[in-house]
Each structure stands twice: as structure tokens, then as C-alpha cells.
Amino acid sequence: MKNFLFFVGSVFILFSCTKGQDSKPASATIAVSLPQMFSISDLADTLQPIRVNLSDVPKPISIKVPSQSIGSYTHINESGTLSMINLAPPTSHHLPYLTDENDQIIRNASGIPYIQGDGGLSQFKNFTTDNGLALDAVNSAVLDRRGHLWFGTNGGGVSRFDGILFTNFTTSQGLAGNTVRAILEDSKGLLWFGTASGGVSSYDGNVFTSYTAENGLGDDAVFSIFEDSAGNIWFGTYGGGVSKFDGTNFTTFTSADGLADDVVISIAQDQEGNLWFGTNGGGASKYDGTSFVNFTISEGLPSNRIRSIKVDHSGIIWFGTIGGGVSRFDGNNFKTIRKEDGLASMVIRTIVETSEGVLWFATELGASRYDGTKMTTYTREQGLASNSILDIVIDANGKLWFCTDGGGVSRFDGESFTNFTASQGLGNIIVLSTVEDKNGHLWFGTAGGGVSRFDGQQFTTYTSAQGLASEIVSSSYRDQKDQLWFGTGGGGVSVYDGEAFTSYTTTQGLAANEVYNITEDSRGNLWFGTDGGGVSRFDGDGFTTYTSQQGLVGDVILGIVEDDFKKLWLSAADGGLSRFDGVNFTNFSSDQGLADDAVIRLVRDKQGNLWIGTENGLSILSSEKIRQIEKVVSLEDYKVMLEDSVALFQTFTTSQGLPDNVILQIAELPEGIMAVGTNLGIAIFDGPKEGKPLDSLRNIEIFNSDTGFPVKDLSDGQNGMYVDQNGILWAGTGNNKTALVRFDYKALKRNHAQPAVLIKELRLSEEVISWHSLSKDYDLGRGGTTNTFPRTTEELMVYGNILTDLERTELKDKYKGIKFDSISSFYSLPQNLVLPYRNNDINIDFGTDELAKPYLIEYQYILEGYDEKWSPVLKKTTANFGNIQEGKYTFMVKARFTGPTEDEAGQWTEPTSYSFEVLPPLYRTWWAYLIYGLLFISLIYPITIYQRNQVIKAEKERTKERELQHAKDIEVAYTELASTHENLKDTQAQLLHSEKMASLGELMAGIAHEIQNPLNFVNNFSEVTNELVQEIKEERARPEGERDIELENDILEDIESNLEKITKHGKRAGAIVKGMLQHSRSGKGTKEPTDINALADEYLRLSYHGLRAKDSSFNSDFEMDFDATLPIIPVLGQDMGRVLLNLFNNAFYAVNEKKKEAGDSFKPNVIVKTSLIETNKDKKGIQIKVTDNGKGIPKAIVDKVFQPFFTTKPTGQGTGLGLSLSYDIIKAHDGEIRVESTEGEGTTFIIDLLIPSISS
Questions:
Q1: pTM listed for this prediction
Q2: Which of 69, 336, 556, 720 is the 20 to 30 Å CA partner of 271?
Q3: Closest by CA position to 379, among listed 119, 710, 153
Q4: What is the CATH number for 347?
Q5: String of b and e for 1023-1044 (b: at least 16 CB within 10 Å)?
């Protein structure tokens, strides 16, 4: 095959990977290759694309969808074998209809049945006794100010839920009764529980206080509780009318006072301040503070049994009745909503209103949602725990909690997600492709169940029995004629015109019978991407097929799109991306920066950008890049474009926030929001704006099972993720529970408030403690309270039983010494806690008010005084601290919610704190130290006196004997010492002379090398000048007419230039000699003003050149980092130069030795740095650092380097006095010298010199 394969090696550009909150794409600079280009016009005739005309082959099979089971036809199945298929009408499965208590379908005025919910499985999460709920029959609920839910059960007391655990309270803790009909939190934070027969209890977090008829309550059966705008608490009783409690006294109103009935089961207050009481047979009573006005069926109510009353945000009063549905009262007229309007039941138990103004009705047959126009009902079919709903409560983030009669509690996370499975009528649970027809109906191609049409009411499934080419439908497309095309997994492609399926296979010229993608271009041609056969173009008359033989990037084509310039882009499963202009293929792969050569998905957004999903990340080719590529004619053009470009493809992976790198689906939501489907759920983020490239995944949100959403791995067919005309995202998954996902992104419930952080429990050495049991508040001998309910409540919660007096005494003995002022309410935390040292192992439990998804809360904490910094970001809710030393400590914890949020709700909260103190152990208390001191003083004095007397006595006896002997020894020792001293002085002088001569030799070698350079220049330029003089003489000797005046002038200019250079280098040699003379004069013991930078510069060069003179193989880099602001300071120049020379020689020696071992891979380097510093004497100073990258000094000997005669050099190469002398010289200058070394990495010598004050 002849082709024009243009491949040019390394060029320019592109990708790396960074990570951030708004993550950035992989886009740095690495070498890439130019794309490959193929031209069909250059191919031999035998390699031209294959064309098959329909007129030359058998006609395609066309089957009209039958209305009854009549007839059969020959079908080619996925394996290629023939089989007879009996024709039959498509099967239909309607979604669950809303039915009444008699199981009769409820229809609207047009006779159309109401669908339950959105028809599928909604986002419900159910809680029962298995999760810790006291009882599954839940009558009432309330959300308290700490963000926790309280559920009143029908016999099990009350349960508090904090998002993780249920805590149950019964009569054992002081509750008035275990059947709780109503709950209220008042404006003071007190919780009120109305019971079926025990009256009402208030709870302040520590103590239950109960009120009954004996205290003035109308009746002990309390069915409703309400707080009015004045702070009065109203209790609706069963038979005793309604009672008002002002905090001190009860006032009761009955039918004798004008109340409609004495059984009051609901209470509300309207915007004018009137109170409304719903009764169980007398209708509703309005009370204006003076008199009652009653409303019954006669006034327009549908029923006289008013189970609930709700005043909405606009002031409309809604009455939920028993048997009459819902009645809306605007102050003048009643309007009733019945089951014919879509209401689940005529028995309404509760009405609540959301922040969006949506009303929810709790009925005996489900929960109905009313937005003012449409009624939607949810039942067990959608995931509700039970159809009998007794109460509804809304949490701080807008999620609804349904209390059911026997099913426990159901949480509803909103209308955003609905799942459809085979139970709702899908042909198969795995949906591979989706297309929407002209009527707005959705067609879902499945993996084995044919294609299912969804019209909002039912699924109608078409298979081979209706003429579909195969039951596996992996691609689907709606053409310009509104025909639907279905690519199958082995049966070719079928087109449906509304009446019949017509199927095309390889017999008619299709490249292969497995069709993965279908696209129509702007000219009306259909393109089919196949498995192994390349791509086929269908123009209505026949098929033309292109494969890798014509230059296509691969033969397994998974994606086809047309760009703004009418060029096709095709993606292959194993080769990358092809651009096709009708004649030429230009192929792009990972060599050009594509995330991976396995391209699974190819999508064009509304701005013309190409989104490319691969097995190793998401790549984007911007519309601007496509515009640039459109102008390219040859590879040279690509080369120029790539040279001027920052990047060709932008790539995003898990490093930038995606949940997984396998990109299976891509779809564009309204307002330019992009959805990317992966093996681990869906990522949604803001797409490019105003034609600009996407520089990060802004506002990315992840939706999968880990984040609490019913989304698993996405399927991999064409349009397996699809956005319908209403902006709803439909996604097929590979899981039988999630199956087909309907995702209304706009309806997503987001947390709009930051979580409130709570410290819940403090344990000692992992042991839970009843702190009330340790409190002195219950010590009657000290005036303690007789109300032991707080202690009883906590003991039951902690230990499961009430402690005996003996057990309580043992507990107090165990924790003897613990002190605290009080105990906080609701969560029993001791305040101002003081712990003995033996109890210094502490465990602190904390949490938030996030009820729905506490697993998406992240925490950081710190114990001030114990930790130096905040903990890493964690999800655990316990902090453990052991062996805490004595002192005062403050524990602080903060949190953030990582799920979908609004505004700043996802930011870190302000820390919540808890303080305590740990006492020292007994042996470290102040009085223990006092005792130690007194004991020491009392014991040491007599012992000292005794020992001193004994020593004096012994010494007196020995002195007499030693005196004579000492006199003789002293005379002998003095003679020997004098002789030794003279020998040492001679030795020291010799060594010092030897060291000075060695330094002088090194100095002279450097000087000689320094002077030799300028002298070499002088000699060289002198010789050249002599030659030039001879040339000009010869020129002038020529006859007048033959002389070259211009040449003479050039020679004279060269002579003049050489003389200038001779003068320059002569002066340089003179300057070196002058400088050395100056330094020699400075060695007379007089400090003179010296430029440290100049001194270091000079001796560094002398050292280097001296060593080079000794060893021509020696070589090293050196750097000078001098602070130009250093002042001139007085020093002994010659001595200071000797110090620097010694340090420089040592440094060069060290790097040279390392290079001998390491070889050429090692680059020796010596760095000399000067700077101004603040010394430890609070004065200004100059610091000199000499750093090498040699082998370093071992830790064992680094402290010995300044000792006389100590050396690390081999025997004969060092005296061991260089650093010792340097140390003495620096000390004589009132300075300091020290060493820092890391073995294997290098050494730094540091000199600190004081800058003398002006006065000194």
C-alpha cells in the first residue's frame, strides 16, 4: 500500500498534572510527535474505499410492527445463524398507578391515571428498630435547635437521632408515658412531649418534668402541642379541650367556652395572631384571644374532623381532614382538594411546607407533594417504608422525614434521582443507548432486552418479535426525517419509521453487524461505526466503507461527530482519533497528547469543543484548536501550530478530581454544565465559558454510592448517558439495583448551611462514664437535689441499668479526685473538668447535625497544649490523647460537608472547643517539692558537719607525714617540669613554624599562579607587538607608490591595542604584589580596616590556583555569594587571611577526595557566602560561610576538628593544627567559628565576627 505517512520525531509541548480544589488539567511541556496524515487519493485502486450499492444486493428485511401475533420471518441472530421468529405485538408495562383504599386506579379529569412519584424508585432511606429506633410505629417528630430529630413512638417512648445513632428515652428516664402523640421544641429550647395517657413532659436536656390533670392540664391524653407568638404553650387534649400554659399556670378552654369540640387534635396560629383549633368532630375553631368562631361542613369544610392545620407562607390556611381530603381557606372561601386531584387519600394526618413553598400531605395511603399545580404521590412502590404516614418533619437542609405506622422512619432526599429497573418495565436492566423521538418519548436500547420506549406512563418494549435486528442495542440515533436508527450487537442496524423496522447488515454493504455508533452529517449521510469493520457511510443508495487501509485510525469505531467545519472526527477503541475531510485522514493519539489511545466516547458540545473519553482520562480539543487545525494543509503547518501552542489537548484525570479515569459517557446539561460518566459514577462540573478553554474542573461534584447517590458504574453504549429536551439526564448503569437513572440536576437538594459541630462524649481510658453519678449535686448530706432523673437517665444510657448505691460508691472511688462545676444538657459533658494525673488518657467523641450523610463530613482537631498543629483531615469522630502531662488544655474541632452545597456551606466551620485541666502527679506538686526541700535541708546539715570534722581530723594526721615527703617531691618535680616545659615550647614553635610555612607555601603557589597569568599576557602581547613593528617597517620600506597606508594604520591600531593590554596586565600584576605587601604589613599585630568580601575573594582564588599549581588534575566549581552591604571592620588581615585560606584549602580537598571516589558524575562545588547577622550578644555581626559538597565529617568526630593535632587527612598530609590555629585567631577577634556537617552530603564552616560600635 502506497501512502503518505508523515512522521516527524520530537517536537514541542504539552501535558503534566496538577491538583487543586478547582483542579487544573495536565498541561506542561513534554516532547510529542506530529500527527500522521494519509491521503486516499494516493492509494492504489485496490485500496480505495469499498462501495456497495443497494441495487446490487438483496433488499433489506422490513417488518411492520404487528398489532397481533400473526406470522413469522427469518432472522439472523448475533452469532450469524438463521432462525425463525414469530411476530408479536410489543409488550407494554405501565408504571405504578395511584390507587385508593379500595385499590381502584385514581384518574384525572381526562381519565388519565396518576403515576406514583416519577414512576421509578425514589431516593428513600429507611430506619427501623434494626437501626436503633425505639419502635417502628412513629406518631410524631420534631427537629431541635441542635439539628437532631426526636421521634415519638406508639409505645416505645421517644428516640433522638443525631445522624448516626438513636438514643431512646422512656418512662424509666422520667418521660410521662411511652406513647408519644405530639412533640414541640419551644422558644426557650425546652422539648415538650404529649403522651396518650400520662400528660405532658418537658425536657431541658437533663430532667423530665411532667404535668397532668392534677396540675391543671385539661386531660392526660395530649394529642397536639403548639407555642403561640406570646410564648404560651397550648395543649390539645382528648376530651379535656385545650389548655394554655404560661410557664406557671394552666388555663383550659372547652366546649363550654365556645370551643367546637373537646377533642382537639391540631393547633395553628394565623398571620393575624388568631389561634385555630382542629377538633375530632366539631370542625375548626378560631380564637382571637376573647371568643371562638367555629367552622364546619356548613361553612365549606369537607369534614368536621380536622387532623392537621397549616398556615403557609402566604397566609393561606390548609386543613387536613379525616375523610374529606385537604381544604384551602383564603379567609373567605374553602376550596377542597380530593383524590381526583391526585391526592393519595382523603385521610390527611399532617401538612408541612418546604422552604420552596411546596406542600406535603401525610396520608394513610402515601405522601402527596403539591407545588400549587401538580400533585405527586409517593408510596412503598417508590421506596417509602409504609404507606401509612403519621407525621412529616423537615430537617435543616430541607430533607423530609416521614413517620410511618409500622414501617419506622423514611428519609426522602429529594426528587433529583429516580431509578428504573425491569420491575418498572425496562426490557433489560442494562441500558446501553438512548434517543428521544419527535414526540418527546425516550427509547432505551438495552443489553439483551431490545429497545424500550418510555412515554412517561409506561414502557413499551420492541424486540426481534417486532422486527428489530437484535435484542442488543448498543447505539441509537434520530435522523433529520425523524426516523430512529438502532445499531445492534450482531444484527446490523435497524431503522424505525413509526410503523416498521427495516434492517441492514453486511449483506447490504454495512462494514460489520456490530454497530457501536450512528451519526448523520450535515449532508444527510449516515455514518455507522462498527466493531472491526471501520466506518460505513450510507447515502440512501448504498454503503461506502473506510478502514485502516485507507488511513482510519482503527477499525473498532466507537465515536463519530461532525465539527463546525463539516469535518468528521472518529474515535477508535485502540488507536486514538481520526479527522476526515472526505479525502485525507489525520490521526491523533497519545503521541500528540491524547490521554490514551483507547477512546471510548466522543462528544461535541454546543461551543464546538470535542470531549474525548478514554480509558485513562478525559481529553478536550477546544473549538479554537479545531479552528487552527482547519487551516492546516501539511505537516509543516502542524509543526508551526504546535510550536506556537501551549497544548493541543487538555487532559483531566483523578488527579484533577474525577472519580475514575475510565470515561464511559459524556453529556452536556443546560447552561453549559458537563456530565462525565465513569466506572465509579458521574462527575458534574462547569464547562468552558465564552469560548475559553477549560483550565480546571470548576465546581466539580461526584455522584456515586460513596457520596450517597443511586449511581453505579455507567454503561458503555452510544448515548448511554443522555439529556432529554427537558434537561433531565438519563444514565444507564451496569448494576441491577440502579439500572436506569433519571437525574434532575436542577432539583438536587443541596446543603445550604454549614454543619454545627457538637462535642458529644468524653471518656477516660476508653471507658464511658456516667458523669451525673460522680456529681455532688445528689449528695443529700450537702444539700443536694432529690431529683435523681438526670443521674438515672445517664446511668441507663451508659450502663443499661440503674446503679446500686454500692456500685455508685465504687465508681466514685475509682474516679476519686475528679472535679467539675456542672454537667451540660443533652450531651452530658462535665464543665471546667479537673482530672488527677492518673486519669490523663482521654477520648473525645464529636459529630455534627448532619442527619442525612454524616459520612460526607470531614474533621480536623487539635488539643492546644498537647498538639503542635491540627490533625490531618479525617472522617473519624473520635480523638484520643494519652499520657497528657499536667496543665490546662483546650480541645478544638472543626468540620466541613463534602457533598453538594450552596454558597459557603462547604467551607470549614468555626472550631468548637472544650477545656479541661490535668493535675500533676503527687510527686510533682508544689507541696511535694517543698517537702523535698525541707528533708534535704534537715538531712544535709548534720551529715555535712560530721563529714567535715572527720576529714579535718584525718587530714591533720596525714599532713604531718606528707609535709617532709612533699618537700622532697616538689624539688624533684620542679626540675623535671622545667625540662619538659622547655621541650614543649621548642616542639610547639617547630609545629607552628611548619604550619605557617605550609600555609605560606600554599599562599605562594597561589600568588605565583595569580601573577603568572598577567605576566603570560604581557609576554604574549609583547611578542605579537614586535612582529607588528617588523611588519610596519617592511611596509614603510616599500617605494612611495606601493605602500599600503590603510594596512599601516591597521597595524598601528593593533600595536596601540596590544600596548594597552600590556599596560593593563602589568598593572594587574602590580596590584597583586601591592595587595600581598599590604597583607604582610597587616600581620604586625595591628588591626586595620578590612573589606571582608575582598579578602575572601582574594584568598579563595589564591587557594584554588595554589591547589591547581600543585595538582593539574584538580578542578572544582566555586561560587561567591557576597553581601555588598557589609561594612569595613578592623581585623588582622594576615591572620584572617590564613584562617580563610585554611578553610578554602580544606573545602577544596574534601570535594576533590569525593570526586576521586564518585567519578565524573560528581560535580565538586565550594560556596563562600557573607551576610549581616544579629549575634547572640544582641549586636550586629558579619557571618562567613564556607560550604562544600564533599563527603562530610562523621558525627563521631565532628566535635574534635578544632582540637590541636586532630586531622582527618591521611598521615603526612596534615599537621592537625590548621583548624586549631584558626579557632584561636577567630577567638582573638572576639568571634566564633563552628562547623555543621552531614555525612555523605557536605560540610559548612561558619565564622561570626562582631562589628565594633563607633564608640569602641
A1: 0.72
A2: 336
A3: 119
A4: 2.130.10.10
A5: eebeebeebbeeeeeeeeeeee
